[in-house]
Amino acid sequence: MSRFVTKDGPLTFGVRTAGQFVESGPQLLTGAYDPSGGGGCDVPQGSLFLRTNGGDGTTIYGKHGSDPTDWAAL
Known about the structure:
Blueprint: E1 2-6, E2 9-17, E3 20-21, E4 27-31, E5 48-51, E6 60-63, E7 71-73
Parallel strand pairs: 2-4, 4-5
Antiparallel strand pairs: 1-2, 2-3, 5-6, 6-7
């Protein structure tokens, strides 16, 4: 579990490890692919994805909806 401090107080993210979720709620994921591609990545809204092979404008994604493909580059 990772904790970040925001202006509204602490924010807790679960970390996805070897396909297992260690905490419910928004997830922090990494990978060398577009999280909205194919069938998408089915995680809670508010999750973040750090793309290890991304370029300008395609490195950090945010989950903005309930559909597995609802990801937007940030």
